[in-house]
Amino acid sequence: MNTMFPLRYGIFLKLWTTFLAILIPIYAIAFLMSKSGVDIMRQQIYHLMEQKSAYFVSSMDSEFERISRLQLEFLSDSDLQDLSNRPETLKVYERTKAYNDLLTKLKTLASSSRYIKEAFVLMQHDNRRLSSVNGYTEMDPGEFSSFSGLKKFTSSGLSYKNDQVYFILGFPQLSSSTFLLVIEISLDKIREEIRNPNTIGDGLAYIKSNDDGTAMSVSSFDRDAYGELLAGEIATEEGTVIHVQDKSYLRFAERFKSVNWSYVMLVDEKKVLQPVLPFKRWLWILSALSVFVVFVVSLSLLRVIHKPMLKLLKAFRQIETGQFDVHLQHRTRDEFNYVYDQFNQTVIRLNILVKQVYEQTIRSQRSELKQLQSQINPHFFYNSLYILYRMAQEEDYEGVSAMSKHLGDYFKFITQNKSDVVSLDKEIQHAAVYVSIQQLRFHDRIVFRFDIEGPADEWEVPRLIIQPFLENAIVHGHEHTIRDGRVDVRIRCDESVLVVEIEDNGKGVESDALHEWERKLRTQDETDDHALWNVHRRLQLRYGAASGIRLQTGSSGGLLVTITINRKGNGTDV
């Protein structure tokens, strides 16, 4: 991810996010519109189911109420009352005429409603059965008992027997009646009525009883074939949508007022929503196409914008690390081609300027080093000539010989200008030559000791970084020393750090002078012809701020000079 998106908020991510920010709300609105359309159509279908159910239920309620009123009115029929209350007083022709008139009335009652299958009267006193279908027959005593014992489930007298529905009224009462007026409801006619309003999406409709312990139902379909659906419908009886396997059904139930029944309609949701399915299908196709377009556009942005920009960023980072051999190429003739050309021209010009500045810096540093060295050499040269002069005056020819040899070695080292650096062991050897010259001058007044640890031959150091401090210890530290003077040189070197300590037991340096030295160290543009400051500047120029000189009071009261060279802080190679 850091390689693909090096910046936290890159152009590619911004463009891609902007594209999605525009696209996602559009498709969110489209999905909401599609869902809203489906919901509206579902509500319309549900409302249509409600209207059809209400019409069907209200019409059947009216018919059942009318049947119940006709049945109640039929009980007051004079022929029925005469045959039931005073059959023994009637003459034969009167009784015959009463039976015939009663049969005619029963047929009229049966034909008054399409829902009446049969209307009949059971007369217990003379064991007669008068039916609108079978006419005048002998009554089965068991039939009278079975109808008398039926439980009346509704106030209208609705009862169930052998999957049949009856309206039963007795006189004077059902438990001890002299006759029963029974009206059988035609379930076949009800099934035909159920089929007629069921035109919504090839759905299913049926009537079920809400009475406890009664499983009576009237349907227009084979209930065994839809057993799983009806089981799911019962499980979600109060819901408006039921789900069975991979299908969804809209459900509406309307209760009857005259009887304790409910009319239920089930409609396949997929079929009723068929008109909006093509729009939904096109929406999914458009969504898939949009995902493909987003993918293609993302790849295009990645190739056309992101990768060229990433290439340019990588080139800039190479420039930051000092690599000026960067050259960018772009195959297409677009804005990046112009930017790359200008970048290449800028790198060429920048490379020229860097080389010029680098060369100028090198020359300036070399000139400053030469000047620093020239500040050191004359100072010792004058003192050495004065010592030779005194030895010659005293005719000390051995001293003159030794002094001349040491001076020859000394100035041979000084005048070798082929390189500004020497190996550490040669610098130590040169310091030893300088000490030998000074011992010819001071004899036993000052003792010099060298202590070396580490591979001195593996280090290269600037010329004359030890000798000026030895000179400082002699000239300033032991200026008034008569005997027991000491100068210790301790050298510790490892792979990355070189530490040289030069300590004397002379008069030391006052604290104000040490503070002044610290101030000079903090002032990089300080100019001073002091030898210690010159060495410090040379170390700073070559090795950076991590290297330099530190002055402090030693354990014996004299001055302790610490020279530190840190290879890790190496600066310009001069």
TrEMBL record:
Record keywords, A-Z: Cell membrane, Kinase, Membrane, Phosphoprotein, Transferase, Transmembrane, Transmembrane helix
Signal peptide: none
GO molecular function: protein histidine kinase activity
Top-level division of the source organism's lineage: Bacteria
EC code: 2.7.13.3
Location in or out of the cell: Cell membrane
UniProt cross-references to SUPFAM superfamilies, sorted A to Z: ATPase domain of HSP90 chaperone/DNA topoisomerase II/histidine kinase (SSF55874), HAMP domain-like (SSF158472)
CDD domains to which the protein is assigned, alphabetical: HAMP
Keyword Transmembrane: yes
Bilayer-spanning residue ranges: 12-33, 282-305
Topology in the lipid bilayer: Multi-pass membrane protein
Name of protein: Sensor histidine kinase
Organism name: Cohnella soli
